[in-house]
Specification:
single chain; Spo0b-associated Gtp-binding Protein, Chain: A; Rossmann fold; GMP Synthetase, Chain A, domain 3; 3 domains; 6-stranded mixed β-sheet; 5-stranded mixed β-sheet; magnesium; magnesium ion binding; GTP binding; cytoplasm
């Protein structure tokens, strides 16, 4: 049995970037011809694509975990790693993408819209790309950064021109089956329709779509019955058609009371900001099942009251097809007017994105800890640089210290009151913890140590004059004691 799913949570993991390569070119008569390590490949992205051929989120309900390909590692001879494979996920047109906290990411309302919801990680640079006139043979490369990993929520809101609204078993599914090629499930019990059905109607030169959505009962705006499952799919429609059952046998129900209940629920439902409230949209009345004699009499009785309220009323029968042509052309007139209004609306303001030069690349936040203050460095660049650093390579660690110093991290730490030996954390959460030593200054380009080492990280300190004097005196005292012991042994031998 086909199941309709209109909300789902995706667990995504984009591809990791490949590591750069450390390599030195070797040729005949040129044992060290320079670095030739290639760059790592970028990780694959996860992209959402609005596809008109996709009508449900069912496939993501059964398999919500999706991941993209990792980038390949760089190689010698300046060979870059392969790019990770992107993953494209087709979603229905009208899908709203939000975070788990409900923050809007994108609204995919146009066919073909694409959203990179999970960007892949960057590939690391090889030592050939890191070489410059001062650092001619780097003994390190940058690591690839991890891709985005997290959860996003997909919510489907049907995109149609006209919505058929009404009580369960009012004949909405029969109406859409009679005027279009849609074949929804039709039965003689309430809540037969459990998911929206779309149909395309041709009325003269105008083609439009209508949506048959789940039935509405009193209290739906508070979640009763299918509740919000119904109302969510009415948001996108430009016009409403109230399908009223004139042949119902339930006590206390009639077309006028049904309409009042429906209007109350539509008025209680809050639409997103910027959209027209549901009750202010064009509305038509369809008095259904007039093929039944009692229903035809009731329709004639209530027609005058409905017209006095300002509604256009149509008496229809999905069995005998009475009144369907008039209703479809009336819906086409409303759709044509709404499309003209949309076409004449002013174009959206073009947003110009300019570089934010005044915004700092990082921030330093002072946090209280059990053993003193902790200085946390937050920012896209410092966090990415730490991810790219191989902490098993001293030269790579020195290169990281150079980058942080040039960015102004040390000056900012001094400004907020950090002292040598203070605990510094780069990144949110646990992050990377350092014991800050401001003596690590930017001078990696002038180092002459072997590749892969950084003398600045050695624990060797220069002796002071006092220490050298004390060591000299200790050495002289040791020599004097040795001479005295030798002289004492010589005197004993003479005796």
């Amino acid at each position: 049995m086909v199941t309709f799913v209109d909300t789902v949570t995706l667990h995504l993991r984009a591809g990791k970037g490949g590591n750069g390569c450390v390599s030195v070119r070797r040729e005949k008569f040129k044992p060290l011809a320079g670095p030739d390590g290639g760059n790592g490949g970028d990780g694959g992205d996860i992209v959402l694509v609005a596809d008109p051929q996709t009508t449900t989120l069912l496939s993501y309900h059964h398999s919500p975990h999706r991941s993209a390909g990792n980038g390949g590692f760089g190689m010698g001879d300046n060979r870059s790693g392969a790019e990770g494979d992107d993953v494209e996920l087709p979603v229905p047109v009208g899908t709203v993408v939000t975070t788990e906290d409900g923050e809007l990411i994108a609204d995919l309302i146009e066919p073909g819209m694409r959203l990179v919801v999970a960007p892949g990680g960057r590939g690391g640079l090889g030592n050939a790309a890191l070489a410059n006139p001062k650092r001619k043979a780097p003994g390190f490369a940058l690591l690839g950064t991890p891709g985005w990993e997290g959860d996003v929520r997909l919510e489907l809101k049907t995109v149609a021109d006209v919505a058929l609204v009404g009580f369960p078993s009012a004949g909405k599914s029969s109406l859409i089956a009679a005027v279009s090629a849609a074949r929804p499930k039709i039965a003689d019990y309430p809540f037969t329709t459990l998911h929206p059905n779309l149909g395309v109607v041709q009325a003269g030169d105008i083609r439009y779509t209508i949506a048959d959505v789940p039935g509405l009962i009193e209290g739906a705006s508070d979640g009763r019955g299918l509740g919000l499952e119904f109302l969510r799919h009415v948001e996108r429609c430009a016009a409403l058609v109230h399908v009223l059952d004139c042949a119902t046998l339930e006590p206390g129900r009639d077309p006028l009371s049904d309409l009042d209940v429906i209007l109350a629920e539509l008025g209680a439902y809050p639409v997103p900001e910027g959209q027209v409230p549901l009750l202010e949209r064009p509305q038509l009345i369809a008095l259904n099942k007039v093929d039944v004699p009692e229903a035809e009499e009731l329709a004639e009785f209530v027609r005058g009251d409905l017209e006095q309220r300002g509604y256009r009323v149509f008496e229809i029968s999905t069995v005998s097809r009475e009144g369907l042509r008039e209703l479809t052309f009336a819906m086409a007139e409303i759709v044509a007017e709404q499309r003209k209004v949309a076409a004449s609306a002013p174009a959206p303001v073009r947003v110009i994105i300019r570089p934010q030069g005044a915004v700092a690349d990082f921030t330093v936040r002072v946090e209280g800890g059990t053993y003193g203050d902790i200085y946390r460095i937050l920012g896209e660049k410092p966090v990415r640089w730490v991810q790219q650093t191989d902490f098993q390579n001293d030269e790579a660690v020195g290169f990281l210290a150079d980058r942080l110093a040039k960015l102004g991290v040390e000056d900012e730490l001094f400004r907020v009151g950090a002292t040598p030996g203070a605990t510094v954390v780069i990144g949110p959460g646990d992050g990377i913890v350092f014991d800050w030593q401001p003596a690590l200054t930017s001078a990696a380009e002038l180092m002459t140590a072997p590749r892969g080492t950084d003398p600045r990280l050695d624990d060797r300190t220069r002796r002071t004059t006092r220490e050298r004097r004390e060591q000299y005196h200790e050495l002289m005292d040791a020599k004097a004691a040795a001479r005295a012991e030798s002289a004492y042994e010589f005197d004993e031998d003479d005796e």
